[in-house]
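New to this. Comment on this protein:
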Amino acid sequence: MGLAAGLVLIFSAFVFWSMIPRMPDQTLLITPEVITRLEELKPSLNFGPDGYYTGVHNPTERSIADRRFVELIDNLAANLPIHPSKKFVLRQISLALYQSGVWETEDRERAISLCEKIMEAVGVRSSDGLLNRYVHSYPWWLISQWLAARFEGTT
């Protein structure tokens, strides 16, 4: 039973991943002002309590998630001038989401709102469904991200 279920899970994830549309890339205009806007986002990119959002309750998990988003900003600020593309931004966001370790629905929704702030700051108008898949099909999203990282550059 376990092997069959595992094979079905892997096959389903592969099919799901292969159905993800490949959107055209967008070249971004990265100026010093864009980098400044990114840096100014850092204090607000956290998983602490905020209004109706109660925050990630485990302090260790919160620290990890907060650190992943600060690292995301640092990475984008350092590398966007070299790779000024939507594809690069979405790949970095995807990695940050994958590594953030947030599991609860409200925490994933918080992660999405933080990603949208980052996208707005750099001029990315759409995530091409990345954020929607992250929130609404989380287990499949994790598997698809693992598969994408595993087979990147082979297609």
